[in-house]
Amino acid sequence: MDIRYLNHFLKVVQLGSMSEAARQLGLSPAAIAQQMRALEKELGMSLLVRQGRSVRPTAAGQRLAERGPALVQDADALRDWVATDEDAGELRLGTVNTALHGFLPDILQAFSDQYPNVRISLRIGITPALYSALVQSELDAALCLKLSFDLPKTVCWTPLRQEPLVVLAPARDAARDPLELLRSAPLLRYDRQLAGGQLAQRYLQAQGIRPRERLELNSIMALALLVERGLGVSLVPDIGQGLAGPGLCKLAVPALAGESGGQAPPPRELGLLWRNPSQRGRWLNTLLQCAQQVVRAA
């Protein structure tokens, strides 16, 4: 089976039109029709039926449409697997947004220096979505937060860095007490649907602080920008070099009452998640080594 024909069949089913599929694929309608006939001949059954100017899949065509994406993906993976012997191909990497503004660019640079012919496909998302994509073989690895449940044996996790809570405040408030700032200044809250926002909320509750909320955002970088403009303060995980600016300061939060040794609240933990075994094992090992070197040098 020509995998290109299968891919084009999926496009026809998606659009419900051979002519529109041909237009998007840069082919003639006659060429698409010929490919569909060749596919039907090879499988020995009708896959499409016409309804006026549109087409729809037959029962057999619907079954092919359901399995087809996985077949196309497997073919792509096989092609990349063959190419890995030549250190060329594609590495599909997921990442949380905050890592893009922190140490991920340095990791990618170090990896690319060793594998200049490997193309890196980045997907940005929240940790649960990245994990789902990983187990469904849509990603090879993900730079994400530590998950709260036990991982299956086919998924590996290596912690890379911890991100403790800090109070972001305008530079003029660098000498002020962070708890007093959280009590008195308008709070630019980190989204409570995210792990970092939940961590911040638990800390505020444990300290008995009922903040004066001004807004709630799901971007730490945007919050830092607003703090620097003087709109308030924020309580967020410290993502590192991304939180630097002449008008901004970071204040460590005090330990919670009753914690032994004066330790700060549990930090957010960031690490690398990948499938094992993996067709891209050598690349992933190198990626992990690059990440560990970058974190140690920070």
Automatic annotation (TrEMBL):
One annotated GO molecular function is: DNA-binding transcription factor activity
Q: Which domain of life is it from?
A: Bacteria
Domain HTH lysR-type: start-end pairs: 1-58
Per the record, a Pfam family? LysR_substrate
Task: Supply the alphabetized keyword list.
Answer: DNA-binding, Transcription, Transcription regulation
Q: Can the keyword Nucleotide-binding be found in this entry's annotation?
A: no
Q: Does the keyword Transcription regulation apply?
A: yes
This protein's GO cellular component annotations are:
protein-DNA complex
Q: Which InterPro entries match?
A: LysR_HTH_N, LysR_subst-bd, WH-like_DNA-bd_sf, WH_DNA-bd_sf
Q: Would you identify the family this protein belongs to, as annotated?
A: Belongs to the LysR transcriptional regulatory family.
UniProt name for this protein: LysR family transcriptional regulator
Q: Please name the source species.
A: Bordetella genomosp. 7
